[in-house]
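Researcher: Structure for this, please.
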Amino acid sequence: MATTAALIFHDPATAGQALQAVRALEQAGDARFLESGLLVKNDDLSVEMKHESWKSEILWGTAAGGVVGALLLGLPVLGAVGGAATGAYIWKHRDSREAFMQFADQVKRTIVPGGAAVVALVESTNPDRVRKALGRFGGTLYSTELLPIEIVNIQAELDKHRA
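Model: Predicted structure, token format:
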């Protein structure tokens, strides 16, 4: 089961550093993010999704793997199997992606002008490492799926690691 969460910051630079930490956590195997990216609220109240920092495993990961595998091995059957796997994977996570995009819309409303947020759809995680890595950036945890007491407890753990 995937969980949507956001860390909201008062400036895009800190949020960008936190997003780099998210990517490092994933590369180290400490977390798996199906969706993640950076939302920035401009002073004119417009909100941008920074596409160069956006990652969508749901839409692109398996599709790219199936196509590349078929091209490299030159087997049309492999392409068909890759396409079928991609379709099944996307269908399996379709509801998660739609819920995540709705969540991102909610987060946009909570970011202060000039602020930013790292938003993520997390499927699995090593909570201690994630809290330690992200806590040093500060930020405020936001989630619609966690109970208020869980948010308070996680925020306290994040704050312990604040630089």
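Researcher: Any notable elements?
Model: DSSP finds five helices and six strands in the chain. Residues 3-160 form one domain.
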